[in-house]
Every structure is written in structure tokens, then in C-alpha cells.
Write a structure and sequence with these properties.
Belongs to the AHA1 family. The chain has eight helices and eight strands; from the N terminus they run αββααββββββααααα. By secondary structure, the chain is of the alpha+beta class.
């Protein structure tokens, strides 16, 4: 049985400033360690046959400068690829504003890897989203990546996942609720959000990922 509390605590979460192609950017950052070699983690994050077992079906011209599409999810362009340490892509969902995702891998001992995932948006875009809708959307972005990296952990431990149905499992919903609360604390510290507004934002995130529990 998966220890959900330990899974939640395994990740470091932060809101930061990260430049994007158009200039100043804001980002959500996740960092966690996996008990696997850097080559294995890189392969799990770039091989379509493995991505399909924890993230989703990925199609396209999977090379530097090529474009990719995740089934029923985002697509974009492969901007940088420095095997096995750095992958940077643009990220667009449903024709919306282009954002950027950067994956950074660092060896940690003989059999461990630290993974950092940073999802950056133009600063004006995300600041306007926070002004209009509160921080719930940011919690949704962070929570979604949290769930994905939880799936990567399960994959690296040999679990056979179906990304199309995995998020409906009780343990994943429990994890999603914990991740939304964890992001709520980070976002409240970053933006000075009131307790009332952050509670509403957390509820929005929980409604998105675990609607039966909201």
C-alpha cells in the first residue's frame, strides 16, 4: 500500500520567477528524488513507450525542433534536449497561451536522481489569472504536475498504470487532495493570499482532481 503522506512530503514545491521566450515569467516548481539512475529516469521521461505507462500517449516528431502532442492533453515544440540532464518544451493546451516546461535531472549518489520540473508562464498572463480568478488555477497546475510525478514514481517502482483511468483511483484522489493543500500553503506564502481565499482556491483544486471528495 502506498504511503500517501510520504509521497506528499517527498516533493519540494515553490513559486518562482523564471524567464520565458517573451520575457519575464512566473513558475511553479516541483523537486523530488527518485531511487533510480539518471539514465533510467531520463528514459522514462522521453521514451514514448514508457511515457504511455505513466503520463499518456505521446505522438509527433520527437526530436530537437520537432513538435509533440500528448493525447487529450497539451502539445508543443521541443526547444532544448541535453541528454540525460535537460529537456525544455513549449506547452500549449487547447490553443491557449504558450507556456514552457523545463525538466532538469541531477544524479544523487549511485542509484538516485533529483528531478526538477518547472512550468513557466508569462508573468503578465499568470498575474492577470490570479487577479481574475484567485490562486485556484495555480493550485490546479501544481497539483496536476504533482499527480504526474507521483505516477512517475509508481512507474519507476514497477507499477503498471493506465494514465486514462489512474487518476480515478482512491489513492490518487487522496494524493491529489494532499497536493492541493500543500500548494495552497506555498501560494499563500508567495502572494499573501487571505485564509478565506486560499481555502476557496484549495477547494477549486480538489473539485478538479477529486470531485467526489470536494
Amino acid at each position: 500500500m502506498t504511503d500517501i503522506v510520504n509521497q506528499i512530503n517527498a516533493a519540494h514545491r515553490a513559486i518562482g520567477n523564471h524567464p520565458v521566450a517573451s520575457g519575464e515569467g512566473r513558475s511553479v516548481l516541483l523537486r523530488r528524488r527518485y531511487p533510480a539512475t539518471i539514465e533510467d529516469v531520463w528514459d522514462a521521461c522521453t521514451d514514448p513507450s514508457r511515457l504511455a505507462r505513466w503520463l499518456g500517449q505521446v505522438d509527433g516528431d520527437l526530436r530537437l525542433g520537432g513538435r509533440f502532442q500528448i493525447k487529450d492533453n497539451a502539445g508543443g515544440e521541443i526547444v532544448r534536449c541535453e541528454q540525460p540532464r535537460l529537456l525544455q518544451v513549449t506547452w500549449s493546451f487547447g490553443g491557449g497561451v504558450d507556456t514552457e516546461v523545463e525538466l532538469r535531472l541531477t544524479p544523487d549518489g549511485d542509484d538516485g536522481t533529483v528531478l526538477e520540473l518547472e512550468h513557466s508562464s508569462p508573468a503578465g498572463f499568470i498575474d492577470e489569472m490570479v487577479r481574475q480568478y484567485g490562486p485556484g488555477g495555480t493550485i490546479g497546475i501544481g497539483g496536476g504536475w504533482d499527480i504526474a510525478l507521483f505516477g512517475l514514481d509508481r512507474h519507476l517502482h514497477g507499477a503498471d498504470l493506465d494514465p486514462a483511468t489512474w487518476e480515478s483511483l482512491p489513492e490518487v484522489k487522496e494524493f491529489a487532495i494532499g497536493a492541493c493543500h500543500a500548494w495552497g500553503a506555498v501560494i499563500q506564502a508567495a502572494w499573501g493570499t487571505s485564509d478565506e481565499d486560499i481555502a476557496a482556491a484549495i477547494a477549486m483544486g480538489v473539485q478538479q482532481y477529486a470531485p467526489d471528495s470536494a
